[in-house]
Amino acid sequence: MKPVCLVTGVGPEGGTGAEIARRFAKEYDVAMLARNAANIEDLAGKYGAKAYSCDVGDLDALVETMDRIKTEMGPPKIVIHNALRSTRGPLLEQDPKDLERNFRVNTTALLYMAQHCIPGMLEAGGGSILVTGNTSATRGKANWGFFASTKAAQRILSESIAREFGPQGIHVAYFMIDAAINTPRTRPIMGTDKPDEYFAEPHAIAEEMFRVAHQHRSTWSFLVDLRPFGEVW
Q1: HEC profile for the chain?
Q2: pLDDT per residue over 79-91, tens digit each?
Q3: pLDDT by residue (tens digit) across 50-77?
Q4: Whether the model pTM is above 0.90
Q5: CATH of 4-226 given 3.40.1710.10, 3.40.50.720, 3.40.30.10, 3.10.150.10
Q6: Distance CA 158, CA 118 (A)
């Protein structure tokens, strides 16, 4: 029986979440969470994974879904929080309620998953929590305040979980993706004239996350920077 991996934010095929699910499904029973039920049902058939339609910003629904996963598949050994909500725009024009919505998806959902899944990991003698982040977690920029503040909180919460539960065998890693990602959604927005090396490839991100999830305990990473070789930083 394979161990269980839970992945949130599984979008269209070829995107980061889908590539993460596809990679881990080679060696894990993967539970894919996303709002688009039709998309993840399609991917489930292709990857041999299981689809759970869920808006992680609906915290009651998230808990119910995690209960179902535990009952139907078993307690997750690996939890990957890839879902995000990003509200951007001039600060004086933003609805403060959107800050709370961003926070629920990006940060509070992570807390709920940690509280729900860590007890099973401790009982099993170990586990991993991986979070996909970006450079918004380290700096505030004009028009990005709502998103950046919640991603910064997400990073600090991840580090707090790592410091508390790392000594108990739970590996937490935060992936700082300093790049535009070559997904079906972002490529048209960024421009088709951009060279391939401008982008980070979703399958490569997924491969690196898989590698980090299986690091030896004597050399665990927490903050993992990923960027294309041509990125200026």
Answers
A1: CCCEEEEECCCCCCCHHHHHHHHHCCCCEEEEEECCHHHHHHHHHHHCCEEEECCCCCHHHHHHHHHHHHHHCCCEEEEEECCCCCCCCCHHHCCHHHHHHHHHHHHHHHHHHHHHHHHHHHHHCCEEEEEEEEHHHCCCCCCCHHHHHHHHHHHHHHHHHHHHHHHHCEEEEEEEECCEECCCCHHHHHCCCCCHHHEECHHHHHHHHHHHHCCCHHHCCCEEEECCCCCCC
A2: 999 999 999 899 9
A3: 999 999 999 999 999 999 999 999 999 9
A4: yes
A5: 3.40.50.720
A6: 13
